[in-house]
Every structure is written in structure tokens, then in C-alpha cells.
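Good day; I would like, with your permission, to put a structural problem before you. A protein sequence and the C-alpha cells that stand for its backbone fold form the material at issue. Thank you for your consideration; the sequence and its C-alpha cells are set out here:
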Amino acid sequence: MQNHRRGLALWGGTAGFVAAFVAALMLILPACSSESAAPPERIILILIDTLRRDHLSCYGGKAPTPNLDALAGRGQIFSNAYSAFHWTTPSMSALFTGHTPSLDSTDGMKAILWNRDTWCGLARFFKPDPGERCLPRSLPTLAGTMRDAGYWTAGVTSNLLLFKPAGYARGFDAWREVGGHWGSGKGELAEDAPDWTLRTGERVNEEVSDVLGSRPGDRFFLYVHFMDTHDYMLAGIPYAEGVAKADAAVGDLMKRLEELGLLEGSVVIVTADHGEKLGETHVVPGMPNHGGNPSFEELLQVPLIVSPARFADESKILRTDDVFRMLIEMAGAPPPRKSDLAPGELYVSEWTFRTYRKGRWKSFQSRQQPKAILVDLESDPGEITDLADRHPDVLEAHRKRTDELAASFAAKNVSKVGMSPQDRERLKALGYLQ
């Protein structure tokens, strides 16, 4: 195992010395694997919304991210971590359930209707029940499994789409929604949608401190969701500055945990829901920012840091739904269900495209046009050149596999109601609608 130990930050006094000593000791001790290591006393999952991995200095990025580097320095980074989707709600549903999100309908040429009931991407699990909402009640959740494994569970989120009535809070003993007045218990916003200044990393960490003050003990699973990188445009700052703000929020969180004596004995996992398009040009235009359609690599490549190191293979391809299994394995819970996908493959069922990757090859199959696109990520990492005519055998294999997956993921019991005014207000508050 290659452990990355660059820029170990000292989070204060004696504790900083101890951290440095432990990091040095790890150089001479064999790294453990989750199969042999006992479950940690605490598992802390940090989600940084809209974070590209190529913007972290521990991944070779130019912008300094000292606090994330410090975590990587005493742990490990995974070089092939991928988002399950280019939007937050489907990606987080994969993280919280271990299932691959999909917008496929029973008509393969059409996507399902997009609303707050379906935007989790798991509508195929809905029962014929008008009360089903977004995260299907039939699916065990990450938090619920952690609680069954003996952890007190707490979640602090600042993304307005991850609200309690949609099912994201299920399994959490404590659940906090940061960002102002989110509205009624039915998940509806108040008339005045909250603005981004109410969900900064500083406010999130204040809420974390408060929720930890009510913990019944020191064995817990904590999920924290930062929006500072996502909100770079709303704040009128460059993307790199948004990344720096999120890094500073992580550093502040680590200090707070250390001050409470909760950092030692914890495993910290940092990842993102998806990346961001920053002006790149590709074989087809696609949508700006993280609109996808199709999903290019800058949207799907996300960081994954585990600190301290727990796993032997840092190079294998891990999707968001694989992180669900990683966390459950770490907690010592019974082995979770197998993935919906084969090892190493990635399938993103979008509005207008089906994006499929296996090995070096990646295809974009439009729901509206018969011609599909094929790129070779080894020779063309920028996804600029269409090689479909040169490798028809590869494209045909992709078509066949995509059809199989689309059929298995097709949603049947889907609401035909469009977005409500409250849905639009949520999207507006996040900057997706004007």
C-alpha cells in the first residue's frame, strides 16, 4: 500500500506531535485492512459538495488544501473514486443505500419525470403506495445499518435537496438541516427561500458542535455535508477559492473534534457527491457546471480519503455505492448486498444520455438520436475524439450492456406529477433556477 503523507498539519500542541509520531510509525508498520482491523470507535463521513479531485493538492492539484492534505498524510487516498451520478440527490442516494441511481423508464428512449419523488434515482424500488417519497422506505440505509452496528448516528446537512421528508434522515438518531428555515414538516420551503450565506462551513460546524453536545456517548457515526465549494458562483468567487473555503471548514471540524477528545480512535472519510465542469470542451457540448448530459470525467472523478489507512488496494475503481459498502464493512456490520454493477464498470442513466464506462472505453448513448459516441480514456482523457466508427465491436458491447442495465433499472410505479412550486424554490435557492 502506498500511503500519502504530505504536509502533515499540526492541529495544536501535544496532539500535533502525537499525530506526527503516529504518521512516522505508520511508515514502518504494515498497513491494516478493514478485514483485520476492529471497527473504529467513531466513523466520520465528510461530504464536500461539487468537489473535483484534481483541485486537491494531495491529488496533484495546484490549489493548496492543507487540511485535506493532512488527513491524506496520515491516511490514504484512492485514485479511482467515481461519483455514481453528476447530481447530488442520486449520488447521495447511492451513498445512503448502496444502489445505482437511474432515470430509466420502461420506455428505454425516455427518462422518468423529474420531481422530488423521483430525483433520488431509485424510483424502481417504489411500492404502489402514494406515500412513497424519493428514498424508498423499503431500502435499508447507511445510517440505519450503522445504528444496528451499535453506533449513535448524527447527520448535519446543508444541501436543501437532502431534506427529512425525502427519506435522507432515515436511520439518523439526530438530524440537522443547516441553512435557514426549510419550511414545514412536509419538506416545503417557506415563502422566502434561504440564501447561501446561511449554509457556510462555519455555520455547519456550529451545528456539528451543538449536535455532538447531545451525544449519549463517544461511539458514533457522523455525516457532515459542506456546501462551500458548490456555492462558489453564488458567492461570486473562483471555484478554487470555494475549494479553499471547504478545506478550511474541514480543518475547523478536525480542531473541534480534537478539542473534544474525539479525533483519536476515529476514522475520517472525505469524498464528494460529484465534480464540476469548468469550461472544458469535449466531443459534444454537454450542459454547464454539473448538469451532465453527458457525464464527463470532471463530473465523475471525486476524491476519496480514508484517514487513518484501512484498506490494501487504493487503485481499484470505487463508485459512490461502493463507499456505502466500504463504510458498512468498516463498522463490522454484516456484509451488505452486492453491487448492481459489475466491478470496474460505471453506468449513469441521465435525462438525455446513457453514459457507460468499462476499462479504458466510455460511451455516450443519446436517448434522442441513434448514433452513439465512443471515447478512449487512455489515449484521450479529455474526451474529445469520437472513435465509434473505428471500434464498432466495443460500441456494440456497450449498447448491449446498457440495454441490460436500463431494463433492470427501469422504474414502473412513477408519479406523473411535475415539479411543485416548492421544488422549484429549492432548486432556485441552490442556484439551479433563476
Observations:
- The chain has one domain: 13-349+411-429.
